[in-house]
Cobalamin biosynthesis protein CobD
Amino acid sequence: MTGKCVAKARGAGICEKLCYRYTIPSGDLIARMTFFSVLLALIFEQVRALSTQNPIYNLIRSHATHTSQSFDAGQPRHGVLAWLVVVVPFVLVVGVVYYLLMRVNIFLGFAWNVLIVYLTMGFRQFSHYFTDIHVALNNDNVNEAREILRQWIGIDTVDMPVDEIVRHTLLHAVIASHRHVFGVFFWFLMPVGPAGAVLYRLAEYLSRRWTEAAPDRSPAFGAFARKAFYVIDWVPARLTAIGFAIVGNFEDAIYAWRHFAKQWPNENEGILLAAGSGALGARLTGPLAEVSSVDALNQGDDAVLPVGGECTPRTLQAAVGLVWRAVLLWMLLLLLLTLAVWLG
């Protein structure tokens, strides 16, 4: 072999080593680390809860507020541009960083996954209100429970009876558990990985923030944010409802889903609340909440009857168990998928 040929062979060997070193890990390696990313993030979140006033959240809030003030000129297309300006940069940055870290070292990509999941998913981002209300009711401190509920959801709670306090707490807890845990979980499992989790949380935040009534915001501005999140949340909402049905009262959950989900203006939320109420055996929505409204329903063999009983403080504890069982269900399914990929 000539010197020129030897040089070419050596060059090819170096290129092969470089390509091997900087090639993104295969899909099975990524699938293996997904389970552990979610598991570690949930453990870290339970050990040290993320404050809602952390610098990342403050940056997003400030950016969303400034963008809405700059783009809102009363036309729906301005809301589309503003949504893209807020969402796309964050999603791209998270996705590009993940791509680069995975090319350098899989453990760096793994650490990035854990960080992003920790920032986007977790019970403790909303559960302190739920826990404080539960403790107050257990101590028969109804006035304190009313005040905490008022601070949480911003409604008038003066003279609100205990069953209504529990019902409103459960309504918001079911939605919050989906948006902070199960919805993020679904999008993190998509091929885009952590970028999907960021997309979901940003879309949820803008849908909620830009549709709130404000004197300096036109009604048309938040229309696209609301529609975009509806599409993004369509599949996750139904999977969460199925999870509630599996780990709760399956028959009542499916029955409530079929008959009461459409009572809510937001279809995704209606499915979650109906399935959650049936799984819990608690009257949360429409005829599930108000016995008097049953009189307006068709009577006879095809009558639609309410599901579950009155909401009591014990129902709050049952809701905690339902959500954790649903988390364990999806984690178990992810673990089985990981093992199948690992062994296969």
Summary: Residues 313-343 form the longest helix (31 residues). Residues 27-288+298-343 form one domain. The CA atoms of residues 6 and 90 lie 48 Å apart. Residues 1-24, 287-303 have pLDDT under 50 and may be disordered.
